[in-house]
Design a protein that fits this description.
This protein has about 350 residues and is mainly β. It folds into 2 domains: about 160 residues, Deoxyuridine 5'-Triphosphate Nucleotidohydrolase, Chain A (Distorted Sandwich); about 170 residues, Deoxyuridine triphosphatase (dUTPase) (Deoxyuridine 5'-Triphosphate Nucleotidohydrolase, Chain A), CATH 2.70.40. It contains 5 helices and 26 strands. The strands form 6 sheets. Strands 1, 3, 4, 6, 8, 9, 10, 12 and 14 form a 9-stranded antiparallel sheet that branches. It is globular. It starts with a strand and ends in a 29-residue tail after the last strand.
Length: about 350
């Protein structure tokens, strides 16, 4: 059947060698996506590129500043660009294509990363029946980050035949039967997906903003880092917040989000129609996210052009819903030790 693949499909694809990585870990397989892992092969490069007329490796020869071995932890310096071969190779057929996105943890650290494949004309796209290597271009924008082979910064969602996105009319009808937002059914905003608004009304913390001169963040170390070393706290001031140029903010939505077990979600990362800023690097929501009580969406916000005034309740992002090719036998949540189920305004898993 057409639609996004699910947990048992990824298991099957690994067994059938459609996805190749002899050391792949079970925890990399998510309900409707696959975490991709860094190999030891890394290069600092002069600038970004797309290999629209060749293999990635053929383009690299003229761009390499130095070669790096990620078998040992290496510090990725702010605003320098690196490219890493991923451990996973693809050997697809039967009308399978895909799309990559940074993981939620990666987005919350302002690590700008995007996948590149051979003969790619666009970042993040896995062509139909692609066979070959995947590389990840990485630029950490806010922190110096220590990374090593095996770390997972991005994820892959594979699709059979075509995406089957729910139209606004289908979403409205679906929401009458099964709740997909914490808002009352008559108040839910649906326009090219579900609209999310920003919450600036908390009596406590409304946002975090990344510090300019933070220490090195060690990506492999969970719940180790002190929040005060990396983030400034912003408290409520008249339910407004000016997003300053080139600063990175963590906020949350007013609405709680629910992704039913037979659907997957994707945050639309940038929409000039709702303001000159970028929202949410990480795009994928697996089936089961927010089930039962719902989970707030954490929003990673930045403007590169001019300061932008946000007000409480302002629309800031959209989520598209799409059908799975079948029900997943695994859903997002505590059974697979998911990090962000039932979250509030939450930083990445690296902070105590």
């Amino acid at each position: 059947m057409s639609g996004s693949l699910v947990f048992q499909d990824y298991v099957s694809f690994i067994n059938k060698k459609y996805i190749l990585n002899k050391n792949i870990k079970e925890e990399q397989i998510q309900p409707s996506s696959l975490d991709l892992s860094l190999s030891e092969e890394c290069y600092e490069i002069k600038h970004s590129f797309l290999p629209f007329n060749s293999k990635v490796r053929n383009k690299l020869n003229d761009l390499i500043i130095k070669k790096i071995n990620l078998n040992k932890e290496f510090i990725f310096r702010r605003n320098k660009t690196y490219i890493v071969r991923l451990n996973e190779r693809l050997n697809l057929d039967n009308n399978i294509f895909g799309h990559c996105n940074p993981k939620s943890t990666t987005g919350r650290l302002d690590i700008f990363c995007r996948s590149i494949v051979d003969y790619a004309e666009e970042y993040e796209k896995i062509p139909n029946n692609y066979q070959g290597e995947i590389f990840l271009e990485i630029t950490s924008k806010s922190f110096d980050i220590a990374l090593k082979s095996g770390n997972c910064l991005n994820q892959l969602r594979l699709v059979k035949n075509k995406h089957i996105y729910l139209s606004d009319k289908q979403l409205i009808n679906f929401n009458k039967k099964e709740i997909i937002s914490s808002l009352k059914k008559n108040n839910i905003k649906i326009d090219n997906g579900i609209k999310l608004s920003v919450d600036l009304s908390s009596s406590n913390i409304i946002a975090y903003v990344a510090k300019k001169n933070a220490p090195i963040l060690r990506f492999s170390k969970i719940k180790l880092h002190k929040i005060k070393d990396f983030w400034n706290i912003i408290k409520n001031k008249n339910k407004k917040l000016v997003i300053e140029k080139n600063k990175f903010y963590i906020l949350k939505s007013k609405e709680k989000v629910i992704i039913p077990s037979n659907l997957a979600g994707e945050m639309i990362p940038y929409d000039t129609g709702i303001g000159d800023f970028r929202v949410h690097y990480a795009g994928f929501f697996d089936p089961g996210f927010g089930l039962s009580n719902g989970s707030f969406a954490v929003l990673e916000v930045k403007t590169n052009e001019v300061p932008f005034l946000l007000e409480d309740g302002q629309t800031i992002a959209r989520i598209k819903y799409e059908k799975l090719n079948k029900n997943s036998n695994i859903v997002y949540g505590k059974d697979i030790k998911s990090n962000y189920q039932n979250q509030g305004l939450k930083l990445s898993k690296h902070f105590k």
